Amino acid sequence: MAAVQVATVAEIPEGTAKTVEINGHKIVVCHAEGTFYALDDTCSHAEASLGEGEVDSDELTIECPRHGSQFSLETGKPRNLPAYEPVTTYAVSVQDDAVFVEYSG
Fold it and tell me: How confident is the model at residue 105, as a pLDDT?
């Protein structure tokens, strides 16, 4: 796996998400409670961009804007229906002001 720089810390303020593309694959990077998380951008229930949903820093979730399923930022597992399949998560690291996602694909 390679670490790919996807943003700077300033580009993803606390409580927000940014959709990035690595080798044609869309990943949403979220900033919650001072930590960065990365998940597949496409909801496992419907073809919706999780990056357009709301990040809940208290619950560490991101909500699908289409049907309201909330996904754990830590595990990618949905917390409520209609989604029941998890989305893939990726390791994130921050070096200086750069945000990196571990991705091979």
Answer: 76
The CATH label, of 3.30.470.30, 1.10.3720.10, 2.102.10.10, 3.30.590.10, for the domain at 2-103 is 2.102.10.10
Across the chain, the runs of DSSP E, i.e. the strands, are 2-8, 16-22, 25-32, 35-40, 55-56, 61-63, 70-72, 89-90, 92-95, 98-103
Does the global pTM surpass 0.70?
A: yes
For 85-102, the pLDDT digits (tens) are 999 999 999 999 999 999
Kindly tell me if the per-residue pLDDT of 37 is higher than 90. Answer: yes
Query: What is the domain partition of the chain in residue ranges?
Result: 2-103
| Cβ atoms of residues 31 and 8 within 8 Å | no
